[in-house]
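Issue: ligand-bound run for 3,4-dihydroxyphenylalanine - logging full I/O for the record.

Environment: standard queue, default settings, no custom constraints.

Inputs:
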Amino acid sequence: MKLDELDNLKKQALKEILASKDGKSLENLRVKFLGRKGGELTKILRTLKDLPIVEKRKIGPAANALREELEQAFKQKLKELLTSNPQLPTNLDITMPGKKIAVGHLHPLTLVENEIREIFKALNFSVVEGPEAETEHYNFDALNIPKDHPARDMWDTFWLKQETRDKKQETSKKNNTPHVADRLLLRTHTSPVQVRYMETHQPPFQIIVPGRVFRYEATDASHEINFYQVEGLMVGKDITLANFKYVIQEFFSRLFKKTVAIRLRPSYFPFVEPGLEVDVQCVKCGGKGCNVCKESGWLEVMGAGMVHPNVFEAAHYNPRDLQGFAFGLGLERIAMIKYNIPDIRLFYSGDLRFIKQF
Ligand code: DAH
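Outputs:
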């Protein structure tokens, strides 16, 4: 009698398990048959104690075996449901808010550099790079900055100690033999790449040179000991300041996404003649005067000029055949204007509250 009951229970349970369509209904079935309070099989097991001992000995093991069989059947069915529909685990609550995945992002200086690269590439400039550890020759001499000229003080320099080179120079000094090797330094600007490029290429060409530079000086809100520049150089038979004006006006208008006026002021850099300082009309107030442009209406953004004949000569060009313009801008300064950043030191602070805003 009891055995029949067990048998019927088994048939019914297996049938329903097999037919169940999802995790929730399967769990309901498990409670219905095996639940500790009021489960069908549990009910049968509870009545065992009232049976005669012979019956107990028969029914007991059979009931336990059935429990195991059903547990196995539930496990098996759950596995099937999960593999056939893996996106829907049994306890999935599709109304729960999702987890936001933190995606990495680029540093503001990288963003601005990338943008500058793209603008110049669209204007048919090539992008080239040069070494950060540079020789005295390329950083100064070839740029028409002679050894003892006061103009050299415009660039406070980190000199690199080079045991063997320095020793050789000592001995060559003592023995009065000619100067053997160039001293090494951390480049103070990207201008040396002008000469390096001209030594290995023939005009006409136009290049920009983004890169890291170093200055041995006190830091403040607008000075860092390491920062980034973008150098520009365009050389050909008849390149003039008019070409420079067009390129640079176009560049700044694309960078600031509106037509901006520019202004050229005479200035001095040893490697250009004439030398210029370039201002753009303040992008914040449009020239009326505000805190960004210190009420002047203009922002100083780059040094520039027409390549000095001595620089062409250092690159083994004939200055009579060629003309060119060059410019150099500070990447941080541009980023500070573009994103309204008040202090250059923020770029290198590693402060996530700053970095995460870009
Ligand atoms: N190299 C200069 C500096 O670091 C910037 C500069 C000025 C670059 C005039 C040029 C230029 O190419 O023509 O201060």
